[in-house]
Specification:
The protein has 219 residues and is an alpha+beta fold. It has 4 helices and 15 strands. The longest helix has 12 residues. The N terminus is likely disordered.
Length: 219
């Protein structure tokens, strides 16, 4: 679910166009003057960065230099080895000019130069915050948002996502398994069908249900 927190004290002339793909999210924002800016981020909402230098509980990440001071306060930081093994987490308590201040000393995580920032919000909201240079904790101005996504299509194509059940009128429980006359590989002698997306099929005897509803309504 996409949550956008807006402040009533701003103009409603801001507009955002957002495309959420399986890997990347593209976002365009037009301000009240008509200026359009854009950004591309990971659809996971995470931001990858490198450790330029560090001291004590502070580190400099060059990829974050354009973000406003205070932007990353409250975000989680995950540290990884070169082989992408997680070696520790910390929380951002301050952010100034590309420098992150953490609630733990950097030495606690050994030698690392890779980190991942988790803002704890979804990618479209993060993208708008970064374009407007508004800290994560601040409310966004009122926005007209146009959002499109291929996540649902990608989940069907890759057969990933939540476990599902199919509720269908009895006795048509096998309808999707039987399918139609479509033959993507017309000359295959041994057609291998994909297993159904739904793990469980529930047949509903609609006439009986409707009969009970009519009987209850007449009382």
């Amino acid at each position: 679910m996409l949550e956008v927190h807006m402040s009533d004290t701003h103009s409603a002339a801001w507009e955002a166009w957002i495309d959420v793909g399986g890997t990347f999210t593209d976002c365009y924002v037009r301000d009240p003057s008509g200026l359009i800016t854009r950004i591309k981020t990971l659809s996971s909402g995470k931001v990858l960065a490198t450790v330029g230098q560090y001291t004590g509980n502070q580190l400099f990440a060059p990829e974050l230099i354009r973000d406003a001071d205070g932007f990353w306060v409250g975000a989680l930081v995950r540290f990884f080895t070169h082989s992408q093994t997680l070696i520790g987490t910390a929380q951002v308590t301050a952010f100034v000019n590309g420098w992150l201040t953490l609630d733990s000393p950097i030495s606690d995580f050994g030698t690392t130069d890779r980190l991942e920032l988790d803002p704890l919000i979804e990618a479209p909201v993060l993208a708008v915050h970064r374009l407007l240079r508004l800290p994560l904790a601040d409310a966004l101005p009122r926005l007209r948002v146009r959002l499109g996504t291929t996540k649902g299509t990608n989940a069907l194509l890759t057969r990933r996502g939540a476990r599902t059940a199919l509720a269908i009128t009895a006795p048509f429980e096998d309808l999707l398994t039987i399918g139609d006359q479509t033959s993507p590989k017309l000359f295959d002698l041994a057609i291998q069908k994909q297993p159904p997306l739904a793990e469980l099929t529930i047949g509903i005897k609609e006439k009986a249900v409707h009969g009970r509803l009519r009987s209850a309504a007449s009382r």
